[in-house]
Write a structure and sequence with these properties.
This is Protein-L-isoaspartate O-methyltransferase. InterPro entries: PCMT (IPR000682), SAM-dependent_MTases_sf (IPR029063). Its main location: cytoplasm. It is built from 11 helices and 20 strands. By secondary structure, it is an alpha+beta fold. Among the domains are: 171 residues, Rossmann fold (3-Layer(aba) Sandwich); 94 residues, TATA-Binding Protein. The strands form 4 sheets. It has a 10-stranded mixed β-sheet. A 5-stranded antiparallel β-sheet has the order 13-17-16-15-14, covered by helices on one side. Helix 2 packs across helix 6.
Length: 410
């Protein structure tokens, strides 16, 4: 209980959690019951992965597992699609994590935005460890909660562990993009993996007065948007896309763009790069509406968050850029490859400024299935498609050291 209280206090101090029903639910939730086993990585990020499965039933694991579960970080619970119940603890080598519980700061923020209330019908898409289902059951009552996952092993484990908490929501297995119409419509729909466009089936299952939340973005993880879809009491659908700092990753069946270790080393070495001075200042990290627009208008880019300077790569064609300050309003910009990423950034930045520097965009969903994102004055807009702008090739091969997109995020 002390670890739980400390985690909640940290979330409050960070501004991710306020007084209310979600806070009460997290204080009441014994995470070790939902996640009696969890993986910890024992290898360095750029080394072949080696994972150890900690187990609550082993006294020697309890202190480390308790710290992991209440650290606020994401918690990996499944390796390579394995059965979760009745598995032996120990070390796994290679492969990737295929189900997890997302970072608690993001989870708490999104659950509060969902505005859960007693008696609501809730569809939780992407069961994962069952945190969202447990919180929804605590607040709304489990009789109205449906939690859906594509992996039967994940569903089976969540059902057993939610029952151990005294909750019996409907735990079902299926394609999250199709929802679960049998028990709809729903007052709240929560999707815990990123999608390239709004799934029409989920919109159709939203009840009048209902609200749906999901991360919307390209195959790049760098600049997510939060889609907020509502259905008015008269049945009209209204939606907006909010540029946010953190979002869920793409789920099962969606490719995910990344900068491989080899590509990052190439950028650091600056081999063949062209360096030029510039008095143009890069947009601030907090100009998230601009970066979100860049991600859609010039897709295929990933930012290296570990780099000291602004560093962005395009793995498909091998292009990259790095901008470092060298004095007052003076920058040294190094670029490589067929794409001039620096020019792309400033092209979009100029359009974003002309559009009024929007942080939130209108998301238009037509009856014929077309989906568009537009600024208020329509000076900046783009169309959403199912196309995945995933980069492949010599510098974009699947990274054996990375985790897959978490289709089972909560």
């Amino acid at each position: 209980m002390a670890a739980r209280t400390e985690m909640v206090a940290r979330l409050e101090e960070a501004g991710d959690l306020q007084t209310g029903a979600v806070r009460d639910a997290l204080l009441a939730l014994p995470r070790e019951t939902l996640m009696p086993q969890a993986y910890v990585r024992r290898s360095a990020p750029d080394e072949p992965p080696r994972w150890e499965l900690l187990d609550w039933s082993r006294p020697d694991d309890r202190e480390e597992l308790l710290g992991l579960l209440h650290s606020g970080d994401s918690v990996s619970i499944q390796h390579e699609g394995e059965p979760i119940l009745n598995r032996a603890p120990g070390v796994r080598s290679g492969g990737a994590m295929t189900a997890m519980s997302s970072t608690m700061g993001m989870t708490a923020d999104l659950l509060q935005r969902l505005d859960l209330r007693r008696g609501q019908r809730v569809l939780d898409v992407g069961t994962g460890a069952g945190v969202t289902a447990a919180v929804a059951s605590f607040i709304c009552g489990h009789n109205g909660v449906v939690t859906l996952d594509i992996d039967q092993h994940v569903s089976e484990a969540a059902r057993a562990r939610l029952m151990a908490l005294g909750y019996q929501p409907a735990v079902v297995t299926g394609d999250g993009l199709s929802g679960w119409p049998e028990l709809g419509p729903y007052d709240r729909i929560f999707v815990s993996f990123a999608v390239p466009r709004i799934p029409p089936a989920l919109v159709a299952q939203l009840a009048p007065g209902g609200r749906a939340l999901m991360t919307l973005g390209t195959s790049s993880p760098s600049w997510p948007g939060l889609a907020v879809i509502t259905r008015t009491p008269t049945g009209a659908v209204e939606a907006k896309l909010v540029a946010v700092e953190f979002g869920h990753r793409r789920g099962a069946g969606f490719e995910r763009l990344f900068l491989s270790a080899a590509f990052r080393k190439q950028i650091a070495a600056s081999e063949g790069g062209r360096t030029r001075p510039s008095r143009l200042e890069p947009p601030a990290d907090t100009d998230r509406g601009m970066w979100l627009a860049l991600d859609h208008l010039h897709p295929g880019l990933v930012r290296d968050r570990s780099a000291e300077d602004l560093t962005i790569g395009a793995p498909r064609c091998g292009s990259w850029m790095r901008a470092r300050p060298v004095g007052h309003r003076r920058w040294e910009v190094t670029t490589f490859g067929p794409r001039d990423i620096w020019a792309e950034i400033h092209y979009v930045a100029d359009r974003w400024l002309a559009a009024g520097s929007p942080h939130t965009y209108r998301l238009e969903i037509d009856a014929d299935g077309a989906q568009r994102v537009t600024s208020r004055c329509r000076a900046l807009c783009w169309t959403l498609t199912d196309a995945s702008h995933t980069d492949t090739g010599a510098t974009g091969e699947p990274d054996p050291h990375s985790e897959k997109g978490d289709s089972h995020a909560h």
